[in-house]
Task: structure prediction
Amino acid sequence: MTDATVLATRTRGPVRIVGAGLLGSSIGHALTASGVDVALADTSPAQLRLAVDYGAGRPAREGDTPVLVVVAVPPDVVADVVERELAAFPDAVVTDVASVKLEPLKALRARGADLTRYIGSHPMAGRERGGAIAARADIFVGRPWVVCRDEETSAADLTMVEALALDLGATPIEMTPEEHDRAVALVSHVPQIVSSLLAGRLADAPDRSLQLTGQGLRDTTRIAASAPELWVQILGANAEPVRDVLSALADDLATVAEALRAPDAPGARRAVADTIRRGNDGVERLPGKHGQNRRFEQVVVMVDDTPGQLGRLFGELGELDVNVEDLRLEHSPGAQFGLAEISVVPSAVRRAVDGLESRGWKIASTTP
Result:
């Protein structure tokens, strides 16, 4: 650790983290690496020891006086733990990182808790695997971190929570709890259900069908590996906004299914085309690299499945002055090569294709 690292860190310790799972331990790793004193607490002694062994912080001690408490526990106990931490540490700002914000706030208000030092927040980051062993200091880098302030929030306390997000490489975004929960229903919670439903259709599918699996199916089912226990809590706590999105989605599915009952009937093909076109419009609105709504084109390169080939590809693209905006890899079953789908700005496509082909690379395709 260098003096420059310490000076660059806005967060000052001690920071107490309650919950040594994926998010809590990941926050601990990032702060500890920056020289911040991190005290970890968890109801599971085994989880706590594992997080400490991996370097996420030290065990919390009697007499600790944290200036910031981060509650990283499952949604159904957030209100209980926040209330307890506010009472135990009257000089600390308390935040939580749960993926649902309105229900815990309602519960705290109903109990008459003093919320002047409480600020709900939520980093839009995670992994399919949970627990301290899956924690990583960099999972927040470049990700939005929602901060839910209200009229009681002081500027100094708000700055402390936003500083935490900035120190972890995230981008703070202010929202109300209601706005947050409606937003995550659309961009996080419903995608989980859709992914799980689609993946569930694979459970009894013939093996020969699954041998045809391509990157599209892997992309759309990636998050289906998430933990059911956690998602039961998340969806239950955000049931109404999720139900609203699912109802609208069910109507859209019904429209397409009805069109396909008689695909040659008047208007049927238009209904299908409009569905696909609206999807195009939605994808266009997704923030891209650095938050820009930019369209890239893809150059698909065949890469031998041998050590060093992907590094060589990147190196030669650099020599061609072609910036890789995104990358996706696909391996065909039994093949001795992979397909590297490189996203580049449209003006760089011809330079990339001509330059790579002159260096012996085989271009499988280019797609807008």
